[in-house]
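quick one, 52 residues, struct below
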Amino acid sequence: MVPIAPKDVRHVERRETSPECGTVLIPEIPHYVRDDEVFIDVCPPKGLGRSE
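---
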């Protein structure tokens, strides 16, 4: 499920731990909301990236 942000939000920052990445997202890394309201995260989609 993709989180949907309010229409007036275009730039947000998250400071909590991302369970998908297992890393702490530092405030200096921004998260953006595209014009079509799709939330963009710095984490790769599930199924991509390192394989254990």
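The chain has no helices and five strands.
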